[in-house]
Amino acid sequence: MDRADAQDRRRFVTTEPVKSAAPAGMSRRRRRRLALGVQYALFAAVVLAIALLADWPQLRANFANLEVARTLFPDILTVGLVNTALYTGLGFVLGLAAGLVIALMRLSSVAPYRWFATAYIEIFRGLPLLLIFIFVSVGVPLAFPGANVPGGVAGQAGLALGVAAAAYMAETIRAGIEAVPRGQLEAARSLGMSQARAMRSIIIPQAFRIIIPPLTNQLVLLCKDSSLVLFLGVTLEQRELTKFGRDLAGQEGNTTPIIVAGICYLLLTIPLSLLARRLEARQRRERR
């Protein structure tokens, strides 16, 4: 084979177009779109089936009876909603104060303080809140004869909610304190500050700035947990939303009052949830 034939053969090999292999199936993007389409179709089918099979006149009569709903106002706002906010606020304040003390004890170098804080957190995070309400309403008078919780039902509700909330808030506050850079405390001590003053003036304010979103979520949980106040034996003027809706539902033989009470809970919890998300988003922006 001469040189000219070899060059022609190389030119033929290099200039011949390469045929791409045909795709074995659908692309990943198309498969993902198909899967999403199937999910949307199933969801739409379920919603349509529920809408067609539900007895809407019966649902409207038992859950959205406007005549029954009108009888709830304005008492459900001036009594039920106000008392719910009061019990929630008392529990949050007491839980925050006790949680801060327990968190500091949890971080203390004194072993008995740490043991007590650890035992408190584990016990009250493990107990159902209903048992705590029963203990406050029954156990306290038996343990301390003649002693009454200040504030009556409001005081008992705040104490039960606060005792339980303190265990959760203590862990939240402890995590916030540990999230503050260690150099902050060392710098404060190098300036001549005592341990207590450095914690009070520098560490704790920064920690609370970090834990505001989870504390807001805890406030939402306390708002819902305040429904257990009905086990304390409240009067008509001391009823919170759940007790108010339950009593009126029994009187009217209709569940509309419970639905209205649920809507009133949302009036408290949704703004708090939105606030918590906004605070979390702002913290993420500040970290960038």
Question: Can you give a write-up of this model?
Answer:
- Residues 18-23 have low confidence and may be disordered.
- This protein has 288 residues and is mainly α.
- It has helices spanning 3-15, 28-53, 56-63, 66-70, 75-106, 111-126, 129-143, 152-179, 182-190, 195-225, 241-252, 256-287.
- 79% of the residues lie in helices and 0% in strands.
- It is found in: Cell membrane.
- Keywords: Amino-acid transport, Cell membrane, Membrane, Transmembrane, Transmembrane helix, Transport.
- Residues 81-276 form the ABC transmembrane type-1 domain.
- InterPro entries: AA_ABC_transptr_permease_3TM, ArtM/GltK/GlnP/TcyL/YhdX-like, MetI-like, MetI-like_sf.
Shape: flat
The major pleated sheet works out as: none
Mean of pLDDT: 85
Structural class: mainly alpha
* Helical amount: over 70%
Q: Separation of termini? A: 70 Å
Low-confidence stretches: 18-23
Q: What name is given to the CATH topology?
A: MetI-like fold
Q: Give the total of beta strands.
A: 0
Proportion in β-strands = under 5%
CATH class: Mainly Alpha
The CATH superfamily is known as: MetI-like
N-to-C order of helices and strands: HHHHHHHHHHHH
What is the CATH architecture term? Orthogonal Bundle
Question: What's the number of helices?
Answer: 12
- How many domains, in number, for the residues? 1
Provide the gyration radius in Å: 31 Å
Region (Disordered): 1-25
Family: Belongs to the binding-protein-dependent transport system permease family.
Protein name: ABC transmembrane type-1 domain-containing protein
Biased composition (Basic and acidic residues): 1-13
